[in-house]
Design a protein that fits this description.
about 75% helix, about 140 residues, 3 helices, mainly alpha
Length: about 140
């Protein structure tokens, strides 16, 4: 049985880029929501004595807390989700490096649920044919 992977960030460049895209979407939604809220406050008829600034100050803290929590969840989910992509890519890369260094019998082994199982199978066939060529 395979050991669970201990390192969660395997290919930082890829994983962080995907997470950055998700965070950019959240930040864009914050800016859009804040802009629409500000426009609503300006255009809406407010009860006598209530200022638009006071309403905006009352709305902003829960909005920012909500968005902070969404960003934290996106970071955690992003690392977990990209781990299923970056892990197999890293695994195949390291196994190919081992085979190029002359090691025989190298095969790619992925965990259940990892991305690229078809690619891993083809890499294994390639590694097997390299082993056969070295022996023959």
């Amino acid at each position: 049985m395979k050991q669970p992977r201990r390192t969660k960030v395997i290919n930082g460049k890829l994983q962080y880029r995907i997470i950055a895209i998700m965070l950019a979407v959240v930040l864009a939604s914050v800016v859009l929501f804040a802009g629409v809220t500000a426009l609503y406050v300006v255009l809406a008829r407010l009860p006598a004595g209530q200022s638009a600034g006071g309403l905006l100050i009352a709305i902003l803290p829960p909005l920012l807390l909500n968005d902070l929590l969404i960003m934290i969840v996106l970071i955690v989910v992003g690392i977990i989700a990209t781990n299923r992509i970056a892990g197999p890519a890293y695994r195949m890369e390291s196994d190919i490096e081992r085979a190029l260094a002359g090691e025989s019998g190298v095969r790619v082994h992925l965990r259940h649920g990892d991305a690229f199982p078809d690619l891993a199978e083809k890499v294994n066939k390639l590694l097997e044919s390299i082993d056969d060529a070295r022996r023959g």
